[in-house]
Design brief:
Elements: H1 3-13, H2 19-28, E1 30-34, H3 40-50, E2 54-58, H4 83-94, E3 99-103, H5 112-116, E4 121-124, H6 129-142, E5 146-152, E6 155-161, H7 169-172, H8 183-186, H9 190-209, E7 218-223, E8 229-233, E9 269-274, E10 279-286, E11 289-291, H10 294-303, E12 307-311, H11 315-320, E13 326-327, H12 333-336, E14 345-350, H13 354-364, E15 371-375
Parallel strand pairs: 1-2, 1-4, 2-3, 4-5, 11-15, 12-13, 12-14, 14-15
Antiparallel strand pairs: 5-6, 6-7, 7-8, 9-10, 10-11
């Protein structure tokens, strides 16, 4: 460590829980922050100040005047400019040694896997359930720790998911609340965003450096009106005992990584014997789960190879467009798993490869069958 770095960070280095080794871990860490809003702004400031080496910032929004009372990274001159870009500039002004990656677009099913796989851990400060579930599901597949926080009126919540086989976001919130409102409707107070964002930054630093007791398996709830703080236990749902949860037990052993999780790992090619045609074809092989292209599935159909195609998207998605097979939404899979055929290959399908991989991993716990995943194309077979 250079002398200038010691001068900057010495107040935290002298903490025995951090020390020089912890400071080096921070410098080597890469973190993706989803949302540069009320929660993202304070946590970005503290992560940059603490010396986290690489920080990705993803937010599609522009700075608006209504943001300024709580999103403390921004000022009036930033109005109309991308939040992610403005946040990056402010972090560089605070700490020029921090590397930032700027994403001025929305995190969605088409890019989540490619972006999240680049980072050691993810912090979710987004303001909608769609993004929260997407972030969680992708982190489950890629086995990435997730620090999650939210605020609603005068209440804030924080938890840490996907750590050492602990619960994930769906264990705590199996379904989105259809009656939930955004802060633009229900309102939000600035200091609460600062408090919750700071707690999220604290949990991130603890996670990186490896000290303290994480909020894994616990949901911290802060009442901003009374300043009462409660912690609620989150139970990791058992695959065997709870068929109602969409995501259940998380396997922490890297046996079924998604093919995009690490360019240097699990990229082997398994030769699958085509018994009907007497030919050998190549497919991506991830642990004991094989990812195939739609062209491979079409060939199986032509050659009469027996398989069961299972579409794990929502029922309405299946009705709008499908490539055949049967519809079993991901959250129904556990309850119907024992009814699936055991004498043929099982192929799980979804639009972007995330839900199908989760489904395959869940079933992998219960069977030695050949399991495959395929991405549904935009055109019919």
């Amino acid at each position: 460590m250079e002398n200038q770095d010691f001068k900057r960070y010495n107040r935290q280095i002298i903490l025995e829980e951090i020390g020089f080794s912890g400071q080096q871990k921070l410098a080597d860490a890469s973190v993706l922050v989803v949302g540069a809003g009320g929660l993202g702004c304070p946590l970005l400031l503290y992560l940059g100040g603490a010396g986290v080496g690489r920080i990705g910032i993803i937010d599609e929004d522009l700075v608006e005047e209504s943001n300024l009372h709580r999103q403390v990274l921004f000022k009036q001159d930033d109005l109309g400019h991308p939040k992610a870009a403005c946040a990056s500039i402010k972090l560089k002004e605070l700490n020029s040694s921090v590397q930032t990656d700027v994403y001025t677009f929305r995190l969605d099913h088409s890019n989540a896997m490619d972006i999240i796989k680049k980072y050691d851990l993810v912090i979710d400060g987004s303001d909608n359930f769609e993004t929260r579930y997407l972030v969680n599901d992708t982190c489950v597949v890629l086995e990435k720790p997730l620090v999650s926080g939210s605020i609603f009126r005068f209440e804030g919540q924080v938890s840490v998911f996907n750590v050492n086989g602990g619960p994930n976001y769906r264990d705590c919130f199996p379904e989105a609340d259809p009656e939930s409102e955004s802060c633009s409707v229900s309102g939000v107070i600035g200091p609460l965003a600062g408090i919750i964002g700071s707690i999220m930054a604290q949990e991130t630093i603890k996670l990186i450096c490896g000290f303290g007791e994480l909020l894994s398996g616990k949901l911290l709830v802060l009442n901003g009106l009374t300043m009462d703080v409660q912690q609620y236990k989150i139970i990791r749902k058992s695959i065997a005992n709870d068929p109602t949860i969409a995501l259940n037990k998380v396997d922490t052993e890297p046996t079924t990584q998604h093919k995009q999780s690490d360019p240097g790992r699990d990229q082997g090619v398994k030769m699958i014997q085509n018994e009907a045609a007497g030919e050998v074809s190549a497919a991506k092989y991830i642990g004991q789960i094989t990812e195939i292209e739609i062209s491979e599935l079409q060939k199986w159909q032509r050659d009469g190879i027996p398989f069961q195609l299972i579409d794990v998207r929502e029922a309405y998605e299946f009705e709008e467009f499908n490539i055949g097979g049967i519809s079993i939404p991901l959250y129904d899979l556990q309850a119907r798993m024992d009814k699936l055929p055991s004498d043929k290959a099982i192929v799980f399908a979804c639009s972007h490869g995330i839900r199908s991989m989760i489904a395959a991993r869940l079933m992998h716990k219960q069977t030695d069958q050949q399991l495959f995943t395929v991405i549904i194309p935009l055109i019919e077979l």
